[in-house]
Amino acid sequence: xxxxxxxxxxxxxxxxxxxxxxxxxxxxxxxxxxxxxxxxxxxxxxxxxxxxxxxxxxxxxxxxxxxxxxxxxxxxxxxxxxxxxxxxxxxxxxxxxxxxxxxxxxxxxxxxxxxxxxxxxxxxxxxxxxxxxxxxxxxxxxxxxxxxxxxxxxxxxxxxxxxxxxxxxxxxxxxxxxxxxxxxxxxxxxxxxxxxxxxxxxxxxxxxxxxxxxxxxxxxxxxxxxxxxxxxxxxxxxx
Length: 239
Known about the structure:
Layout (H helix, E strand, L loop, with lengths): L4 E4 L6 E2 L4 H11 L7 H10 L5 H11 L11 H13 E2 L2 E2 L6 E2 L3 H10 L4 E4 L4 H10 L8 E3 L11 H10 L7 E5 L2 H10 L2 E5 L2 H10 L7 H8 L5 E2 L5
Parallel strand pairs: 1-6, 1-8, 6-7, 8-9, 9-10
Antiparallel strand pairs: 2-5, 3-4
Helix pairs in contact: 1-3, 1-4, 2-10, 3-4, 8-10
């Protein structure tokens, strides 16, 4: 993969989050009685799009649940606080964030940095503190020029995050800019900005497809990304 400029989503692209963010969504929903929420249901909602904020997604899944005893009077602040307890940890108990791993090989990231002459930015729905924590933990902070996060403005699929990343890098949005993501919202944001959208299959989806004897890009999210205009779907780690 080569590009003049490379924009990277974080979750599912750089960070393996099936046991962290995705599990935090499930645990949060279960805490409010939405026991039927599972990873498959989350995946279905991600395919539909408009689910780039996991706090909001958790609340919406709870409110949409028909499970008995679901608390539908809860606020987003309540859901966020519960989510963060699971994700960050509390009172000495490790958080689910500790289970995250880096998907691409460090050597791959260094090579991409070389090929783009250092023009790499992160475009993520994570809060800044979570984004920076992951980058520093995996020694990626020196390979990334800037990050666009939750606090900066409207989330994907709005084109703002992609456009803002290009602005921070001092370049114009164009087909020379590749944005790599793992959901339809990522691809929609890239296309709406006039950049090239490239999809990547998450590790868990690729493994499921392998067990079925099917190509990785026939999983639900890759198919949806292709329908949204992804020029190609890469294997996990940009293989």
